[in-house]
Amino acid sequence: MIIAARFILVLLAIGGSGRALAALNADYQFQSTLASSVAGAPALTNAGPGSNGFAIETVDGNSRTVLTFPQDNGLALAPTTGVTASDTYTIVLLARLADVSGYRRYADFKNAASDTGLYNLDGQLNFFNSATGPGAPITANSYRQVVLTRDGVTGTIVGYVDGVQQFNFVDGAGDGIIDAANTLRFFIDDTAVGGESSAGAVARIRVFDNVLTPAEVAALNRAAVSVGAAPTIPTLSPIALLALVMLLGVAALAAFRTRRSS
């Protein structure tokens, strides 16, 4: 049994080809504050010529405090250093747009200097100018959970609306890399080609320091909750898991035979 126990420990140490959960490094829930409920992340700042304000709205059937913003206004997260790497991240936005006609900005990675980035385009999720999702899942004044992931190793960008994948492409041009200003901007448009923003409201913004899988994106909650950094959980590969189950079965059988003989 001692040998079996040691073998199990070896499996746990070297058989874990599964991935660790990404850490939630910033969570903005807009409960009358722009601060993150995860310690260490900087507070968001209002951006634009107008005034943002807190209000009570119905989100997913429940009344909660949100941040409303007029057209040409939005939010900025700066610096992103310490929150996420510039080329690897998951960004989760739970928001509504009042106008979904044409291009309406969700996220800007180049600190207003480029027209590239994440948009609504006539109800479709769009990353200009590389990919557009099917159908029109984004409707005016309806809260949608929009997720964007970027893998710094492969350059792959994936976009989701309400847990459903909309597009997948390799960002060879680096349009999704947060530039040297270390600033993420939300809802407010760039200065290169302006006028592509909408009034609206945001109920929650989250930033993870890694790429969530499609299953993890689909499982994301939407309610305002008290959260901390997600734990890192080691997982076993399928082969290691099968070997572990077989070993436990053999060990149980050996223990049963020992009890009978005694």
Give a quick precis of the structure:
This protein has three helices and 15 strands.
Structural class: alpha+beta
- Major sheet: size, sense and barrel closure? 8 strands, antiparallel
Give the termini separation. Answer: 16 Å
The CATH architecture category equals Sandwich
**Based on the structure, what is the oligomeric state of the protein chains?**
single chain
Poorly predicted regions are: 2-18, 227-241
SSE order, one letter for each helix or strand: HEEEEEEEEEEEEEEEHH
Helix tally equals 3
CATH fold assignment: Jelly Rolls
Beta-strand residue fraction: 25-35%
Number of strands: 15
> Under the CATH scheme, which class?
Mainly Beta
Number of domains: 1
Global geometry: globular
DSSP helix fraction: 10-25%
Q: Radius of gyration, rounded?
A: 22 Å
Mean pLDDT over the full residue set: 86
List the helices and strands and how they pair.
Layout: H1 2-14, E1 24-28, E2 45-47, E3 53-59, E4 62-69, E5 74-77, E6 89-97, E7 103-108, E8 117-121, E9 124-128, E10 131-132, E11 144-150, E12 156-161, E13 164-170, E14 184-186, E15 200-208, H2 214-218, H3 238-261
Antiparallel strand pairs: 1-15, 2-5, 3-4, 4-15, 5-14, 6-11, 6-15, 7-8, 7-14, 8-9, 9-10, 11-12, 12-13
